[in-house]
Fold:
Amino acid sequence: MTRRHAFAVGLTILACSGAPADAQTPAPDQRGVRISVGDSTVLARQMLRAGQPELARDVANALVGANASDTSAWVILAQSHLQMGNIAAAKRAGRTAWRTSQTKREGFEAAFTMADIMAADEAYTRSQIWIRRAIQSAPGPQSEAIAIEAFRRVRQENPFAVELAFGLTPSSNVNSGNSNETTKFAFLEGTIFGFPLSQIEFRVPDDERPLSGIEVSAQTDLRYRIAQTQRSRTSLEFGLSGRTYIMSDSARASAPNVTGASLSYAQASVGVLHQWVPDGAQSPYSASLTYSHDWSGGHPARYEIVATAGTQFILDDQNAISVSGAIRYTDNFTSDTTAVTYSALSRWSHVFDNKHVFGLTGQIIHAASDTDDLTYEGALVGISYDFGDVVPGIDVSARYTAQIRDFANSAFDPAGRLDRITTAQIDVGLQDLQFYGFDPVVSIKGRRTESSADSLDTEGVQIGLNLRSSF
Structure:
């Protein structure tokens, strides 16, 4: 029998921190060793650090034999099996450690150990889930920072990435209803009693007026890396998103025929993304091709094919400029119309010394179609400001965009049409309410469309609650 096995067989774990005064000393031929639980745990951890997982395993087995609820012992046992390459045994011990954990520190150690085991088994997505559990159980900021850094390392290794988003958004205008009580129809010809029909004001029906309710939304974006070199990466992308509405009592009373199902929207997409850094360059480039299929009210609405390309230039430590272009082909099933939209976008961002971030965005758009109201020239200007943590635990950001769309011809007005669309939004992140690494974000968003065609005027305010990954 080797010395290691002789030690393991003769080990006796005391249930208290020290031997009682009347403890009987084992006879010399028993070759026994008496050691406290605390000392045994310290000894086992030292053995792991010294690269002796077999000895650490034997001590841990003795500990769990004395107390099956000893979380620290189960953690050591899991780590020992991991070092020895016994992944299945490591998982069993790690899950038992998680089930028996009672304190934040125990939960953190058990979850973090399980994350290591899953990463060693190349189950990177499950490793990330266990790291989020560790973050939720972190006993302090230092432990949380260690887990976040581990999450980022695993994310780099993981060819599969998942992004989830959920939202509950009360809105004053879920149906994009007309904000006017009455409207005119410029395309009407002729007169009645000598008065031009185009100047008559018609009452907007209740079901076309703004209706209030709650938007319920969910989105899943999946990315799978299929190829990678030191300077390039290619990934497949999949997306699912949808939203429906819970109508308010007042909306049901005024427009019973408008339901959440009739306003519902869903989209499924698949695409490929290629990112690379050319030889001799420092700026990253990207190109993508995406196909998406949309449903509205439960019925097929359209499909789109979108091609994009872009790059980013880091000017210095505080300034960066990104530019991109896109071509979008849209085929609408309900109206049997098609459109091709070309757009170019540029964004400048500046980081101030206090870590606040200012952004300025500009975009130009050209849309061509066989339908007048899908053919337009457009321009957009946007500004954003990230205030960072305004007080400990609360961060704030704001953005504002103004867009113009100029239609040379329109079914709503023979003289053409001009739309002005403005959007303002404030996001408030509640870091102290973090849940598994996700921060709740309260968003207040206002949107207004002012059109030369009165029937297209809309405005509304949304107050939403969403979850945002904090790392």
About this structure: Confidence is low (pLDDT under 50) at residues 1-32. The longest strand covers residues 213-228. Residues 89 and 415 are 76 Å apart (CA to CA). The two ends are 52 Å apart (CA to CA).
